[in-house]
Amino acid sequence: MNVITTNNKWIGQRTIRPDGADKVTGRAAFAADTTMPGMIWGKILRSPHPHARIKSIDTSKAEALPGVKAVVTARDVVDFPIDKSVMLGIQDMRWMCRNVMAREKALFPGHPVAAVAATTEAIAAQACALIEVDYEVLPWVIEIDDALKPDAPILHEFVKFEGKPSNIAGKLEAKKGDIALGFKEAEVVVERSFTTRPVHQGYIEPHACLVSVGADNKTTIWSSSQGQFMVRAMTSYLAGIPQSDIRAIPAEIGGGFGGKTIVYLEPLATLLAKKSGRPVKMVMTREEVMRSTGPTSGSKSTVKFGAKKDGTIVAAQGTFYLQAGALPGSPIRGAVGCSFSPYDIPNVLSVGYDVLSNRSKVAAYRAPGAPIGAYAVECVLDELAEALKMDPLELRLKNAAKQGTKAAHGPVFPRIGYVETLEAAKASAHYSAPLGKLQGRGVASGFWFNAGGESSAQVNITEDGNVVVTTGHPDIGGSRAAIANICAELLGIDYKRVSVLIGDTATVGFSNLTGGSRVLFASAMVVTQSAEKIITTLRERAAKIWEIDPEAVKWENGAAHPASPNAGEFPPLTLAELAAKAPSMGGPIGAGVQLNTEGAEGGFGTHICDVEVDVELGIVRVIRYTAVQDVGRAIHPGYVEGQMQGGVAQGIGWALNEEYIYNKQGKVDNPGFLDYRMPVCSDLPMLDTIMVEVPNPKHPQGVKGVGEVPLVPVMAAVANAIYNALGKRFYSLPMSPPKVLEVLDARSEAAE
Amino acid sequence: MSKLHISTTVNGEPAEFLCEASDTMLDVLRGPLGLTGSKEGCASGDCGACSILLDDRLVCSCLMLAAESEGHQLRTIEGMARGDHLHPLQQKFLELAALQCGICTSGMLVASDALLKKNPHPSEEEVRYWLAGNLCRCTGYDKIVRAVMETAADMREQGNMEARQ
Description:
The complex is a heterodimer.
Chain A: H1 20-25, E1 40-46, E2 52-58, H2 60-64, E3 68-73, E4 87-88, E5 91-92, H3 93-100, E6 105-106, E7 112-118, H4 121-130, E8 132-137, H5 144-148, E9 160-161, E10 164-165, E11 168-176, H6 179-185, E12 188-196, E13 208-213, E14 219-223, H7 228-239, E15 246-250, H8 266-276, E16 280-283, H9 286-292, E17 299-307, E18 313-325, H10 332-338, E19 347-356, H11 370-388, H12 392-398, H13 418-427, H14 429-432, E20 439-448, E21 453-461, E22 467-471, H15 479-491, E23 498-502, H16 519-546, E24 553-556, E25 559-562, E26 573-574, H17 575-580, E27 590-597, E28 603-614, E29 619-630, H18 637-656, E30 687-692, H19 714-726, H20 737-751
Parallel strand pairs in A: 1-16, 14-15, 18-19, 22-23, 29-30
Antiparallel strand pairs in A: 1-7, 2-6, 2-8, 3-7, 4-5, 9-10, 11-19, 12-17, 13-14, 13-16, 17-18, 20-28, 21-22, 21-27, 24-25, 25-26, 28-29
Chain B: E1 4-10, E2 13-19, H1 25-30, E3 51-54, E4 57-60, E5 73-75, H2 88-95, H3 105-118, H4 124-130, H5 142-164
Parallel strand pairs in B: 1-5
Antiparallel strand pairs in B: 1-2, 3-4, 3-5
Helix pairs in contact in B: 2-5
């Protein structure tokens, strides 16, 4: 495989994305934009209780209401008994079937208990209110500390830890060296504990779907998700329809950030459509999104570092408790595996616990688990640098992971660009810019695994010599534009001649989720191999016309040429000319490739954040931000920068404002955008980016995933900046105005 | 109760529809009028994805009753381009990659257009406060703000050129 690094015409260009015009004119069809003749509306009845046994459900009154066409409950959803795990990727269908519809118990406020389809949304809502559920309300638990108490209410009797029923659903450990010995060698030790609150992915598009089921069970699903094949498989499992009978069509997706890697509505809409014989549309309200989907875990962590006086880190230990919500599956892998990966440390012990409580089940959120771990690790490193009287970037440089470093979670790094991110940060104008009063600067780094996995592509040459590429990954952030750049580069044609489409489950081969920062890495591989096959065909056909050996033909600038004067003198044969001759020369030109891609190497970032604290109001404002990242190769720099800037903005929200607030009844008290305060335009400065390009040696274009890394360092960078401004450390997120004021008040009282 | 019969103007064309008294403008735009470019992100006026112009006023169509459009002029994202000729803001959003998923884009463009009509010389701060009612979760706003500022500069230049001619 050749890494294309120089003389590129399209790779590295800021081209107009293939789906761009549709998205600036309102023409792009998102999930909620689709309708069908005869369509009816589905609505969900949700539990008002955090924890309750469902003794009985009487749906007769709802069914009798005029306009109601179908009612479903857990009885209609395929059951996956708890004694046998059935995995789909990282999701266990035992938990998925209980998450889409409560079975034995309702486990959080907002947990679905029944669903109705009716001719109007209003009738469906009215019917939900007529369903009688007999609940036996049970004691409940929301916070980690409460869930871990010996007398805590147990969510699931079948979950056992150390032989006893427990709210700890799992433990994960990564180890390297001898941790006790490591700390014995240390001359300086810093240990701190941290908490973070659950935060939502915050996609602006609520979950939505439209499902039509024929009398023969043939099912068509239009929905917004991070993977049409995931939608097909999960719906197949939960509605009991073979995958071959389900066609899942990916609508344009209005943001996901991990939160749309599982289903909520599709199986229920399918069951309602099957029962009613009518197409069923379901669209969540914002409140339903906030109460019942996502978020990522709240956490408590303890991190300890030991170093020599010269700054050499000799030992590091982390313990991470992450909330799973009501069913097992918090992202402890990210917290345990990523947190220490930027550093070459001889002795590491990293342990994670998956903790159940009566909250909605967590879903993936951008580098799941890694930002939680990095927040703790990178804040402690800041204190360690201070204790050692070292510049925080110097401390990181001294201990940075490099090619050949063995990470605690297993792999040995190939050529990576972490050191380059630190050096670029250090050399940036930002790092040495002066600061004003009540302003402070912080730095932090972060790592994400990145992912490969299954991808398929079909590349076809049209009869007029243009190109249609079909891949299987929903495009959330401009991946079609990058694929067009690569395809145009390889075929030597204008990128405008390349159309890139996202196929449905019936028209393209299996492709795994849009997630884990895998889409461009994997789809570029299958598109490259497809294009290479096509070029081989084109060379063979030119060779036949010229009556020379195919080896004597080269493909350049969108045409076949004789490879050297020895091959003979022939005028070039363009893609359009060869396409026109296709019928008489062996038929259509196209190629498809399906791969389980490998070689997605981890990504690193280093961020610099400046804040200014309003001491009257307790508001922390980010006034300057620079994100530096090893991006492998920026195929479309505009969308790479966009990933970096978007991740930073989400991190600033997580650091300063966002949190789920629970009331005394165990319910989320801020289920809307007014009170769940995500950053708005006036909250942020311009977000500067420095893309460090160290091509991934295992990828034909050097591509490395870029989407998740930029969220990982942010919370620590902001926290370290606040410390620098105020001389006071915060050990819990968010660092919101009430908390900041509390600290400032305590300080001024102490001074008086 | 029978439905209300409303006559209004949408993107310069006369439009009539029947609605319930409780229907929002967004419900009717996306439903009977088939204009699904305006999006519903929250239905509470917090995200701005449903931004439209009511006469010259920028409003969240989810907070407006459909019946209130009687006799008024509405402008939606569908009325921004002229045929295949994109508005300069639309073109600039594409050139600067000022959108990722695209769900907020309709509202952002309608709101930005309203700003530039009111204030052809917006400062960065003015753009940021004007767009504070339009949530975007993908971009961090950087490229959106740049696109609006650059479009404003281009349009001023264009205006100066036309004035000189």
